Amino acid sequence: MKEDPVLKEAFEKWDELSQDPNTMFAYEMRRKQVFDEHAKVREAEIRMQRAEAKALAEGTARGMDEGKAEIIRAMLRNNLKLEQISEITGLSVAEIESLDKTLRDK
To answer: How many CB atoms neighbour CB 72 within 10 A?
Structure first.
């Protein structure tokens, strides 16, 4: 197999440079810098994913609460007893009364 002169020269230069402690130190420091930069980017991506997931969960919970409040409001308008609403929704009578008062104050 024929040797590639450019590749051979590159390997020889690498061997020469790798013998110099200052060059190797500079190489290792640059390598560490590149790895650190990649780690920062990955950490930022992970934080963004977590923030998006948290925002979605909070938005979903808020939407469900608003939907539940709308259903309770409809039950109250239809004169369902507080005990019945409590049984259906799982909220206590006191929570329903508080929600009813809050809805009337709006």
So the answer is: 22
